[in-house]
Amino acid sequence: AAALLGEESQQWKDLGDASITEATEKMELWAMLLDGAYSEVLCTPAATTLLELVKTGGVEAVEHYVEAGDGGDGVADTAAVVLCVGAACLSRFVQLNWTGPPGDQ
């Protein structure tokens, strides 16, 4: 029984390590957004992927991306990343056009 528990424990640990890494990346994305680092959010691989999807396939491509759960552990995680990138786009637009400070990019 101890050997079986050890094996299961290692499997859960391996799954946990992957989840922690993915969760950390998402938390960093949200932390950048909350810190006002909108340009940095928009330069992340997740944002680059989403912006390329919008450019090439429009809203339908993003909907498919979210429904397929391609940006995370599932639909909810992918939708959260899309929300974060969208909020960064809107916030950067407002910052550049109304509130300032002027951007360097």
Describe how the helices and strands are arranged.
Layout: H1 2-34, H2 38-42, H3 45-68, H4 75-99
Helix pairs in contact: 1-4, 3-4
Q: Which short descriptors sum up this protein?
A:
about 100 residues; mainly alpha; 4 helices; disordered N terminus
Please give a structural write-up:
This protein is an all-alpha fold and 105 residues long. The chain contains four helices and no strands. It has helices spanning 2-34, 38-42, 45-68, 75-99. Helix 1 (2-34) runs parallel beside helix 4 and helix 3 (45-68) crosses helix 4.
Strand content: under 5%
- SS elements, strand count: 0
Q: What would you report as the Rg, rounded to the nearest angstrom?
A: 18 Å
The level of helicity is over 70%
Instruction: Report how far the terminal alpha carbons are from each other.
Output: 60 Å
Provide the residue-averaged pLDDT: 81
Give the helices and strands as they follow along the chain. Answer: HHHH
Indicate the low-confidence ranges by residue numbers.
Answer: 1-5
Form type: globular
What's the total helix number?
4
Structural class of the helix and strand makeup?
A: mainly alpha
**What about the largest sheet?**
none
